[in-house]
Amino acid sequence: QASFKIQQDFLNKNIVITAGGTQENLDPVRYLTNRSSGKMGYALAKVAQKRGANVTLISGVTKLSPPVGIEVKKVITTADMATTVKIAFEKADIMIMAAAVSDYRVANPAKQKVKKDNDHWLVDLVKNEDILKSLGKLKGKQILVGFAAETENLIANASKKMLAKNLDLLVANDVSRNDIGFGTDENEVTLLQPNQDAIQLKRANKDKIADKILDTILKIKN
Ligand code: CTP
Ligand code: CA
């Protein structure tokens, strides 16, 4: 009889993972959001737990069902996510920001439903906190991992983000391709680390990509 042993190489490690997109209200019935499905972050949570980690999943809005046995904290807005993430970060050994965080929020969301009385509706957007950048400043012994979604100059733009946010690892995602990335079950990413050669991962399903990301995290010495 064959027996499979899953390697428990993340035993006793506290991993906090964010996933999905945040939403910003325009009025009580409408919101702004992005194309994130949450699949990459949920795959990371599932695989990390299999490998023995204590996983906290901080989830924006997704259509995915919560992975069995994982503590999920649900958030909606970027401000909600920022508060929840900062608390969890204190006890984290590893923090992975896979969420697609809304960069802007509506300056003055309407208290009542906006009626279609006007031909134009000009919306004033103000910039949200960059949660990952804040974590980069707060960072102690934690390993800090971010994602970058780019439609052009993938490596150059992603490297800038890695340095600006004080990351130990950045997962660079080319979101201009619609066969991979947003909403799909497969992904093809490049892993960037300070002062190291880029690692180009082959196209694979998101569970496999999650495993490779976790393999790389294990090798980081802080
Ligand atoms: N991020 C964050 N808080 C924000 C925006 C982004 O924590 N307000 C995180 C994302 O979770 C991701 C990383 O920052 O891990 C990069 O997100 P991305 O959208 O690619 O880059 P930005 O820094 O937001 O820059 P831009 O959207 O202008 O490319
Ligand atoms: Ca952004």
From TrEMBL:
It catalyses: N-[(R)-4-phosphopantothenoyl]-L-cysteine + H(+) = (R)-4'-phosphopantetheine + CO2; (R)-4'-phosphopantothenate + L-cysteine + CTP = N-[(R)-4-phosphopantothenoyl]-L-cysteine + CMP + diphosphate + H(+). Binds 1 FMN per subunit. GO terms for molecular function: FMN binding; metal ion binding; phosphopantothenate--cysteine ligase activity; phosphopantothenoylcysteine decarboxylase activity. It comes from the Bacteria. Pathway: Cofactor biosynthesis; coenzyme A biosynthesis; CoA from (R)-pantothenate: step 3/5; Cofactor biosynthesis; coenzyme A biosynthesis; CoA from (R)-pantothenate: step 2/5. GO terms for biological process: coenzyme A biosynthetic process; pantothenate catabolic process. In the N-terminal section; belongs to the HFCD (homo-oligomeric flavin containing Cys decarboxylase) superfamily. In the C-terminal section; belongs to the PPC synthetase family. Catalyzes two steps in the biosynthesis of coenzyme A. In the first step cysteine is conjugated to 4'-phosphopantothenate to form 4-phosphopantothenoylcysteine, in the latter compound is decarboxylated to form 4'-phosphopantotheine. Catalyzes two sequential steps in the biosynthesis of coenzyme A. In the first step cysteine is conjugated to 4'-phosphopantothenate to form 4-phosphopantothenoylcysteine. In the second step the latter compound is decarboxylated to form 4'-phosphopantotheine. This is Coenzyme A biosynthesis bifunctional protein CoaBC. It comes from Ligilactobacillus ubinensis. The lineage of its organism: Bacteria, Bacillati, Bacillota, Bacilli, Lactobacillales. The gene is coaBC. The chain holds residues 175 to 396 of 396 of the full protein.
